[in-house]
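Lab manual, section 2.4: Encoding a predicted structure.

Procedure: take the sequence of the chain (316 residues), apply the prediction step described in section 2.3, and record the output as structure tokens. A sample record is shown.
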Amino acid sequence: MPENFFAGADVGGTSIKAGICNERGDLLHLIEGPTEAQQGADRILANIRKYVRQAAEEASVPWDQIAGVGVGVAGFLDIPRGYVKTSPNLPLANVPLKEHLEGALGKPVRVNNDANVAALAEARVGAGRNVGSIVMYTLGTGVGGGIVVDGRLIAGSSGMGGELGHMPIVPDLEAIQCGCGKMGCLETVSSATGIVRMAKDALRRGDQTVLATLETLTAADVMEAAKSGDATAQRIISRAAHYLGKSMAVVSVVVNPARFVIGGGVGKAGEFLLSQVRDYFRKYALEKAQEGVEIVAAELGNTAGVIGAAMLLQDA
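Recorded output:
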């Protein structure tokens, strides 16, 4: 019996990654092309179709051996229907993505949140392999998340399971409004956007910091300044780590995962960030809930979204 292969697509604001995986989750081939989001939803859909077929062709996998296509996309989704309600960086509003792609590609299609599919990949073949349950945080422009329990994604009744960035974790007196409209979300302090915002606040206050010498300011700049001993930058990163660790303490008594996995651009800071998050987690988490729990860096990098999307078909 011929082996099945699965196609995965990770749809971002600027680029779409597409790849082919085998039944073991090995990524056989990966391509990347522009999303062309400025040209509208129809162009995005056309590019998904094009890149998925191109990935199969370049991998020398006949299309009839592709068992299905998985798609990861940022936004609020109706996951069972594969329906994109809204997306923060894409002109996709009320788009029946699953229905459209199944009609165009002639294959079963599964659609899920981009952070969820990254978590699924990390759980099965990345930093969470051989562990029963993980919770993943993706620290980028925002804070995404995914929960995998006993090898299966937990999406919840309306697909909002794992939206860790929108935990209202910052106290009222410190809280600002999040892009979602609510106050005090984790995303406002622990994302790249939140870190830059806190740095700009410090500059407006007149804090003495090397950051004042930079023409442009990124979260990576703040992280590097903190590593170099800049006191203002260290306070900012400590605050981001503080609320990350505190949120994990909350999650630990709801899900009680064996491992927390941190990915995304901010997560690339490595042990400098992770060690602080671990300290705050230990400070806030119940002793029994932190027993044996590890907080580690993601392993799959930019390929996690494609691999996890392809894996959605294995659960179909």
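Check your result against the sample. The chain has a mean pLDDT of 93.
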